[in-house]
Amino acid sequence: MLREAVETVTAAVTAALTAAGNASSLHTAGRRARRVVEESREQLAAALGARPSEVVFCGSGTESDNLAVKGIWWARRAADPRRTRILASAVEHHAVLDAVEWLATHEGATVEWLPVDRDGRLHPDVLREAVERDPSDVALVTVMWANNEVGTVQPVRRLAEIAHEHGIPFHSDAVQAVGQLPVDVATSGVDALTLTGHKFGGPLGVGALVLGRDIACVPLLHGGGQERDVRSGTLDTPAVAGLAVAATLAVERQPELHARLSGLRDDLVRRVLTAVPDAVLNGPAGGVDRLPGNAHFSFPGCEGDSLLLLLDARGVEVSTGSACSSGVARPSHVLLAMGAAEDDARSSLRFSLGHTSTTAEVDALLEVLPGVVERARSVPARR
Amino acid sequence: MRLLAALSGGVDSAVAAALAVEAGHDVTGVHLALSTSPATLRSGSRGCCSKEDARDASRVADVLGIPYYVWDFAEQFRADVVDDFVAEYAAGRTPNPCLRCNERIKFTAVLDRALALGFDAVVTGHHARLEHGVLSRSADAGKDQSYVLAVLTPQQLAGTVLPLGHLTKARVRELAAERGLGVADKPDSHDVCFIADGDTAGFLRSHLGSQPGPVVDALTGAVVGAHDGAYGYTVGQRRGLALSVPAADGRPRYVLSVEPVSRTVTVGPGEALDVHEVRCTRPLLHAPLPASCAVQLRAHGAVHDCVVRQDGDGWRLSLATPARGVAPGQAAVLYDGDRVLASATSA
Q: How many contacts does A have with B, using Cβ atoms within 8 A?
């Protein structure tokens, strides 16, 4: 992120650190901390077109996704035991994917992974068909705002409308979207929205769930009843302050960032496809259907982790799929859901551009890429 | 040189990588993910495939300041090492999975990949000396691993760097501690890494199922017991025979042979295990054979003086002192003093 923005966020975190107190305490220091939290709540809500009372601060995007998926599912089933079905896109992040699978394994949820098209997009008709087969047994619908691997933007507003026609709550993981795309909770119609600080220049280890006031949600954490009883635990006041300031800055600058990054990205895509003619762009061609800083390719005959190692050694940092704890590159479930063969999924690389990316960096990539691809092709394939 | 250091998460590979860095090489670390469902924590001294081991390996790379990646060889390991291990036992032979992993994974799949990516060689923490292409025993006789490296071809050895050959294990641990490597006092790994609980017979039973058959006494030809699967027995084994009929001569019985087709396990007295001659297949020559040399028939096993004769495609080894309990499938490694001359597989 830009230097000036880093300084603003740092100043907010530092100020909150020096005003340290427990926001749950009743004395003066507690009130001071609580004021920081509540101002941050108002600030974040304003940035996202939500109401302050809808903001639930928590520890990460993963926690926010788990709270939404499990909490809403439990509440919906408690209200009507027939509601056990979860409708989710097949390209969700693991924080949603694994939470849903956990409900299926341990709580008796039935799951429908909704298929996407070749670009990774979930068509509203697919959701409509799944809902209308039996609207009475659907607990919730969860579809991410934009995909973390291939950048596909989902038609969230139309999907949420379909769920609402049948009174079904709609959750969206917007971790990738905030700061990159216009995200307005009120007009989008989503009932629960997940975001995390570090994706838009805020601190690590803090996230939020924007949860509609009339959406029942059973807590994951029990205790002091903070965050309207949905998320107990003493808040990290400095992190919350940093999150709110960073979100405000990111949303302010989003249109300009979008224009600059999508231009740079389109240039990168065009030049990669020229330099490596058989490379395949995964995901939508560009425009408003794709995250502006995302480019994702398959390089036939190469393995993604060979390309990663070779590019890393030449100063170009890229990713294969999404980062995972063990560091093992597995064929991406996102690409497989988009209809890619396993080999193509293994041969893919994601290029992410951000605030600091420049044309000179794209030049540097293109200088080494053809040689790197050629060398990677000589690496014997694994089974 | 550009070197690829295979980091298992143990102390040996950590120090090997450290010495390579200190020798001025350009070193990159990789951890091999060999299990399709890695355990979170290692159980006791077993295994080298847990997430804890992967973390230890990445911490070594952090401390050394070298790039670090995880390479997924789980599918290849399953096919080439685990399935091979089960198939060998099913065929009545006694495989050495560490040797097979060196032969097929570390010094074939990993080395080929490293060379293709532009590395000059692979560095490992094996305890053996490798100088100018000549493989010989480690300075630490108790830890020597030249036996499980003798199957490597000269081309494979040319792409291998073994920095620990002149060091004892105790010295390796000291070097690790001096460098602030957290694995300095990590326990050695033992046994078969993919059998987490150490129960080889149980592992084989879960893969091969129940295959009951008779236990026959070699001296009398009488059926003296029953078993649930001949694969659970290996030549030379004495424990766990559970004979229902006591031996006629009252002496202990040992497994003499395992015949998988008829599922017959033959037992007999200890001296019937003594062999003076071993027939070998798959010979691999590292150096011209002198008139007489020495052979080792199992990891950390005894060494026997021997004379080697050509026998068709293979060799016939005449031993000066008898070897007890040589199972088909074991590696026979020929030495001249400490130097590895050749390897072959007992038929």
A: 55
